[in-house]
Structure formats: C-alpha cells, structure tokens
Input
Amino acid sequence: MHTRIGEDLLIGGQHHRLAYFTTPDSLVKVARYFHGFWTKQGYPVVVNGDLQREAVVSAFFTREGLQRAVVLRTHLGKTVGFTVLKDLWLYEKPASAGSHFIQVEGALFSADVGSRDAAGGSLHRTQVVERGLDTVRQELAARFTAAGYVPVRESGSRLDGQRTLVLEYARGAEQLLTTLVELAPSRVAISQAWVGTDRPDGMPNADAVRQAREGTP
Output
C-alpha cells in the first residue's frame, strides 16, 4: 500500500506526486517487480543503482506524457520505496516564488520547490552564495524588515563544526523560515521555507502568525 506524501509538488515548473511504502521483500525483488510490471505494459524502463542498498526504476509513459519512478533503499531489514509521478507535458512557471522569498544576489546555485493544497501552500528555495555568514545574515535581516516581515525568533548553533543560524519571520498569514549553514569561511548555504495559509492552526508557529496579524510584538 502506498501512502501519499503531501499534495502536488511543483519542482522546476513541473508537477510531481510523491508516495512511499515499506515491504519485507528484498530490494532486488521489488525492483524486479516494477521492472517486469512496466515492461509488460510496453513502456520503456530504466534501472539504476547497485541493487543492493539502493535502486531507481523509471518508466516513461510516452503516450500519456508521464514518468513513473520508484526509488528503493534498504532500512532496518526492510525495503523502503518512494514513488514519483511526474507530468512531462504540464509546465507551470513558478513565478510566485520570487514574490515570497527574500532574494539573495549573486547565488552560485538556486532551486525552488512548491506544494499546495486547499488550505494554502508552501515554497522552498535553496541557494549557495559566496559571502560570509554574518554578512548574509545582516543582508537578509535588512531585506526582511524592508519587505514588512516581523522577526519572531533567531537561534544559532554548530553542526559538525559548521556554524548554523535559523531566522524566523512572519508577515500577516505568512511565515518565512531561513536556515544559514557556513560551508566555508566565505561560502554559505541558504534554505528558505515559506508557508502561507488562511488557517492559523495550519502554520508551524500559530502564535507568531496571530501576533503578526494583530500587529503585536
């Protein structure tokens, strides 16, 4: 049985649906099942991985314009599978991401992922920039304030020797969580997660959203 993971995801402008399952069957047996099942239906099938610890089986439904894939890993004596359904023909320009995130200039890498449901939506942006962590933090704080965001919480720590900062901001029915990780003295990874919904209980921090809506500190 497959368990759905969230709602539709928008990755690079293309729609994806994700699910997962676990089974006591071996990874090889599961991979062979999907390979045989899709092959019998007449679809081109590709298999990658060592077929011991990991494997990916992909099929291309050319007539329907879909790609189906299952990513398999072994864990605690079981096989864990993540299934992905990707629409190859439907493209939706992810224009909304730019209006919610605080753009950091000069990024070496940038990628956006979005999801949505009836109650609201979420967006995720990952970037890598060539600047120091404190410089990036000051730049973001100034831009958050200019964009009307209210600071909620800031925390810092070290993970495997790397400095990490977490910045939480709210603006009306929106929350923006930004994580900064120092990859090197002059290189920082930025992960931003934006959540917007009309339901306060749908937010990661309902109190922060309520206070931001009411304009209270």
Notes: Confidence is low (pLDDT under 50) at residues 199-205. The first strand starts at residue 3 and ends at 11. Helices lie at 27-40, 96-100, 133-146, 206-214. Residues 21 and 166 are 32 Å apart (CA to CA).
